[in-house]
User: Fold this.
Amino acid sequence: MSLVFAGVCSHAPGITGRAERANPALRDGFYASLERLRQALEAARPQALVIIAAEHFANFFMNNMPSLCVGMAESYEGPIEDEEWLRIRRTRVPGAPELAQTLITEMMKDVDLAYSQEWKFDHGIMVPLHFLTPRYDLPVIPVNINCQGPPLIPLARCWAFGRALRRACDLVPERVAVIATGGISHWPATPDSGKINEAWDRAFLAKFLENRRAELIAYTDEETHRDAGQGGFEIRTFIALAGCTEGSRGELWFYAPIPIFAVGCTVAVIPIQAPHAT
Amino acid sequence: MSLYYVQKLLYQLNRDPAVRKQYGEDLEALLASYELTEEEQRALREPDIGLLYVMGVNGQLLMHFAALRGYEWDAYLEAMRQGEARYGPVRAGLYKRAHDTGRRQ
Assistant:
C-alpha cells in the first residue's frame, strides 16, 4: 500500500490574514494542532501530497466548470490573493506531474475527471501548505472539487472519487499523503461571516470520523445550505477523504468555532489501514 | 441582468495582473468589453460593494475586489449590510435563498 497518511484541516483565509483578531487561546490551540499535523505528515515520509480542496474562483469559473479536476503541472504559484491580505508570501510549489498522470489515468477507470497543467493556488490550498509544508518542498498534486458554483457534484460521487483515489494510490510505489481541506458550516465572505453552526458541525464530524458512508452522503444541498450555509457545500472534501479511507475511523485533534476565521476550525487524521477490497 | 459577466470580470480581475492594470488605467474600456447593464457598470465603477452583493455576486469574488479597492474586512462586511438596507434582499445567486436563516449580529 502506498497511501501513507490522511488528514483534514480548515483553510479559511482569516486563519492567517486576521490572526491577531482571534481569541489567542483558541487560535494558538488550533495552530498547535496544525503543527502536530505537520509533524505527523512529515513522520509518514510522503513523497507527494494530494490535497483535496475547494477553490474559490481562482482557476475555475462558470465558463467551463469541472466538478473534479486534478493538477498535473510541473509547479504551482500561490497565493493568487494579495500577499498582505492573506499574509502568505507568493511562492512556487513543486508539482508531481508524472505521478499525477499515473493517478489520473488510473482514476479515470472509475470516475470522470478533468485535469489541468496550469493552476494557481488560492488560500484554499496555500493556508494548509503554509502550516503543513512551510518550506514548500513536498511535491503537491492538487484536486479541486467544485463547491462554489452549482450544480455541484453529488456527495456519493465525491465518495466514489475518494475511493478511486485510494485505489490509484495503492497501485503506485510512491508514498502518497492525502490532505482534505474544507469548511464545515460557514457563511464566508457574506454579512453572516462568523456564523458557525457548531451542533451541525459536531454531528457531521461524528459521521465523518466513524466513516458512516450512508449518513455522510444523505445530506441534501438544500439542507446543507439552510443549516450550514453555502460554505457547507465544502463537506465534499471531507466526504472524498472518507471514501479514500473507507472502513477507517478518524481521530479529531481539534475543533473549535473561531468566528473571526469564519469557520469551525478543524484538524483530524485518519490512521491508514489495509486497502479496502474493490 | 448579466450577473454572469459581472462575476466574470471580477474573476479575471482577481486572477490576472493585466486585467488589474487595465482596471486602473482604462476602466471604461474594460467595462465595455463585458455585457453589463448601466447599473452593473456603475456598481463596478464606484464601486458599490453593497449593490454588487445585492445583485448576487459571490463573496469569494467580491471580498477580493473590496480589498483591492481598499476596504478593510469590517468595512467590507458593513458595505454588504448597507447594500441590503438600501437596495433590499439579494436578488440572485447563492445568497438569495438565505434570508430566512438566522443572522449573526
